[in-house]
Amino acid sequence: MKQFIQDLPKVELHLHIEGTLEPELMFELAARNNIEIPFNSFAEVKDAYDFHNLQSFLDIYYQGANVLITEQDFFDLTWAYLLRCKNDNVVHTEVFFDPQTHTDRGISFDTVVNGIDKALTKAAEEFNISSQLIMCFLRHLDEESAFITLEQALAHKDKIIAVGLDSSENGNPASKFERVFEKSLSEGFLTVAHAGEEGPASSIRDALELLKITRIDHGVRCSDDDHFVEELAKLRTPLTVCPLSNIKLKVFEEMSEHNIVELLRKGVCVTINSDDPAYFGGYMTDNFMAVGEAHMMTKVEIAQFTFNAIEASFISELEKKRLF
Ligand code: ADE
Ligand code: ZN
């Protein structure tokens, strides 16, 4: 099974590029840019990555991003992730980035997007890994900040396929971003949103109805409402599930209790993704392995996660044929 999972072609649809910042690169960039970090050793970093919920993770994650300053830093970060993709046989990836985390520190939008884009282009040429870029609005910030960010993205429409919504779900309802998503759609961006990670099934419904999203990031709390699960299955609404993330952030106590396999068997279009792999203990193969070890599954079922991800991806029908 291990070899089967390692060799399986994979498609990643839920990956925050800032969440791929490994401690080694964090130390390297801190030294390069003369930035102070609150850790003296890798052991101290490991100790700090002991989260009890989403917010306790986000506080450390935003702090980590402070070492990213130049276009080269964003390139190096993205390139390191793409080397992991090559190793895990990821053939297509749709990458989130959080511009406000950087522009609020005085880093220009162009620096961020150009660094990431150059690495993605190089990986397409050298590794035949295709990709898309998704710009996320931070839901703990206000609507005005999201509109300013959207304005900055307009000059980069050729590089950004969709907008998303991440950060603290509780206390920041989808309704806060209804107008900015409407404007994003009218500008030709596709839309996705984190929902039902910590928030209830109604938070997923709100994201679908108010933000007109085409897929849900996480969405695992849909199981609180059986009727809703049936609806999601019928409509083949995709859920980009992140198993190791859900365990680290205590959405489920144990991988054996995770609902991803149950949802798969009910016909929901669930996919496996790594979210913030440097913080949650693993990239794509690790996530597949963790699910495969905790749940009895056939090879056909495991491969179905990749078929679902191709179906849910933002690649053209022509490109999909290359992947099938
Ligand atoms: N930003 C990075 N990872 C996230 C997650 N799992 N949920 C919400 N926002 C995030
Ligand atoms: Zn996420």
UniProtKB/TrEMBL annotation:
Pfam families (UniProt xref): A_deaminase
Primary role: Catalyzes the hydrolytic deamination of adenine to hypoxanthine. Plays an important role in the purine salvage pathway and in nitrogen catabolism.
Name of the protein in question: Adenine deaminase
Catalytic residues as annotated in Swiss-Prot or TrEMBL: 197 (proton donor)
Protein keywords: Hydrolase, Metal-binding, Nucleotide metabolism, Zinc
GO molecular function, one term: adenine deaminase activity
Domain of life: Bacteria
Listed GO CC annotations: cytosol
Residues the record lists as binding substrate: 276
Marked site (Important for catalytic activity) residue numbers: 218
Catalytic activity: adenine + H2O + H(+) = hypoxanthine + NH4(+)
Principal EC category: hydrolase
Chain sites annotated for binding Zn(2+): 14, 16, 194, 275
Domain named Adenosine deaminase: residues: 9-324
CDD domains named among the record's database cross-references: ADA
Cofactors that this protein relies on: Zn(2+)
GO biological process: adenine catabolic process; hypoxanthine salvage; nucleotide metabolic process
UniProt EC number: 3.5.4.2
Cofactor note: Binds 1 zinc ion per subunit.
Family label: Belongs to the metallo-dependent hydrolases superfamily. Adenosine and AMP deaminases family. Adenine deaminase type 2 subfamily.
